[in-house]
Amino acid sequence: MTRIAVNGAAGRMGQTVIETADDRDDVEAVVGFDVDDVDQVQDVPVVHADDVTEGLAEYEPDVVVDFTIPESTVALADACVETGTGMVIGTTGFDDEGFEALEAASESVPVLKATNFSRGIQALLRAIGEALQAVPDYDLELMETHHNQKIDAPSGTAKTILETVQEHRDVEPVYGREGHAPRDDDEIGVFARRAGDVRGEHELIAAGNDEVLSLSHHAEDRSVFAAGALDAAAWLAGQNADWYEFGDVIDAQ
Ligand code: NAD
Fold it and tell me: Which residues form the Dihydrodipicolinate reductase N-terminal domain (predicted)?
């Protein structure tokens, strides 16, 4: 049984992680952290984020699952290094400095970061290389849709899809288009829509030669991300200090 802490316990994803953990017998949520003034989520005690180091020392989780904001994750990394706690990071929107702080932490504790913990997105990422090999000169466009509370744009997942495309095609992103905006052969349009409570939709299209190929994914419930993050936490508990990705968990199956 892997003991987990949940950073951002009162948030949309934090609550879903705690609910999902409750239905599993390989992980147990032992403590949550949040800046929101809540005492507990479900039956899990929530400690204020100011006291995260003390909370980790008291409840001794193996791994912290983090779905917050970048500033919180970076502060959490210091506490995890101090207490020898592994990190599963779902938060998106890091700048270079934040990302480097997490990489530095991975020299002391195991750190697994994924912009998307759904297995379907992992499958989509793996399919991109093969697909683009068959349509090497088709125009590429990338679109994502998320709920109206999402802070960062484009989504972390869209950035990961873009990076994966760029491993196979020399394309430069153009974020939205307006006015006189003819398309270049070597560009990929990237579009972010924000509406309602959409959990997460991503679509990469490749068009040319009188056809359109679409690689798309829809998350229908946040529990898909929670399940992946908990799979990652259970796996990470047995690993040494290093940097890991969600693909490592899938490869290990
Ligand atoms: P949310 O706003 O509902 O929840 C964030 C929570 O973090 C809130 O409860 C907030 O009070 C808390 N928080 C803020 N600052 C904190 C701090 N310093 N210490 C502790 N807690 C703090 O957001 P959400 O929808 O749950 O998303 C959170 C993050 O997860 C976003 O970056 C989002 O893009 C990302 N996300 C990733 C995946 C994935 O699969 N990797 C899936 C969904 C969401």
Answer: 3-117
